[in-house]
Amino acid sequence: MKKQQYILLSSALAVFVLLFFFGKTTPDKKKDAVIAAYRPASATLSTNDILADARKKLSSAQQEKVTQLENAVVRGDVKEQKIKIFTQLANFWGDTIHQHQLSAYYLGESAKLENSEKNLTFAAHLMVDDLLAEDNPALQNWLATNAKALFESSLQLNPANDSSKIGLGACYMFGNISDNPMQGILAVRQVVEKNPGNLYGQMMLGLGGIRSGQLDKAIERFQIVVNKQPDNLEAILHLAETYDRKGDKINAVKWYRQAVELISVPEAKKEIEDRIKALQ
Question: Which of 173, 182, 192, 240 has the smallest CB count inside 10 Å?
Answer without folding.
Answer: 182
